[in-house]
Specification:
Elements (H helix, E strand, L loop, with lengths): L5 H21 L9 H14 L3 E2 L11 E5 L2 E3 L13 E10 L2 E10 L5 H20 L6 H14 L3 E2 L5 E3 L6 E5 L16 E4 L2 E3 L5 E3 L6 E3 L5 E3 L2 E5 L4 E3 L14
Antiparallel strand pairs: 1-4, 2-4, 3-12, 4-5, 6-10, 7-8, 9-14, 10-13, 11-12, 14-15
Helix pairs in contact: 1-2, 3-4
């Protein structure tokens, strides 16, 4: 596990802020009738205008700059010509590179008027992420993070995707530690000051099982149930953590802000 220096953290804050601002500027465009490839273009143009690079573009062959996962798509959805419609939910996952350092974050947007189930799923998934962030500090274990996410999701009769996880990052897109979103408290690697990693739970309205589509990227729920995801990049501080991808709309609303 790579401990970041104060200079590295300064650069990661800048990258994290850029990633967060992508989700802020794109929000007015997430409306019925827009295509996901239009959203991708707007996001990529914005990132490059700020001196950054869309990290997903050409990463292991991924063809676009952001991931757009709609309704039953869990993660890694490829932007395309299909238009969003009223009642959809869509996760926009944006990662950027700025001066060699990564920022990575995602948000699930409500498109128009959504069902009660969709609204509740998106809200509970966000709460899962926040509850996990709130307990991060030196000395806890990775299993503690997974356990609190799993407990909250199951309490609301939702399931946790187990095949994909959060991850460390810095000058590399994915590094140790892996952050599982399920597990047993008191188990796994010990979290120490200076670590930077993502927490990004994927929560399903139905069963947890998933499958990979023939495009070799898009992951969907096997039972075609709705899925939501939220993601933040954090760094572990002396007595807690700092959210590097915090959006303005979140400031002052939560204990970790």
């Amino acid at each position: 596990m790579i401990i970041k220096t104060s200079e590295e953290l300064s650069k990661m804050r800048a990258a994290g802020r850029l990633a967060a601002s992508v989700l802020e500027i794109i929000e007015p465009y997430v409306q019925p009738g827009v295509t996901t490839e239009e959203l991708d273009r707007i996001c990529c143009d914005y990132v490059t205008s700020k001196g950054g690079v869309p990290a997903a573009l050409n990463y292991r062959g991924f063809p676009k700059g952001i991931c757009t996962s709609v309704n039953h798509q869990i993660c890694h959805g490829i932007p395309g010509p299909k238009k969003l419609k009223d009642g959809d939910i869509v996760n926009l996952d944006t990662a950027v590179i700025l001066e060699g350092y990564y920022g990575d974050t995602s948000k699930t947007f409500l498109v128009g008027k959504v069902s009660t189930l969709a609204e509740r799923l998106v809200r509970i998934t966000q709460e899962c992420m926040y509850k996990a962030i709130e307990i991060v500090k030196p000395g806890i274990r990775v299993g503690d993070i997974g356990a609190i996410i799993q407990e909250h999701a199951h309490a609301h009769h939702f399931s946790v995707v187990q095949e994909y996880c959060g991850h460390g990052l810095g000058t590399v897109f994915h590094e140790n530690p892996n952050i599982l979103h399920y597990g047993k408290a008191g188990t796994g690697d010990i979290i120490v000051e200076g670590l930077t990693f993502t927490i990004e739970p994927m929560i399903n309205a139905g069963k947890r099982h998933c499958k990979l589509l023939p495009d070799q990227w898009t992951v969907v729920t096997k039972d075609h149930s709705l899925s939501a995801q939220w993601e933040h990049t954090i760094t572990v501080t002396e007595d807690g953590c700092e959210v590097l991808t915090l959006r303005d709309e979140e400031k002052g609303k939560f204990t970790f802000c």
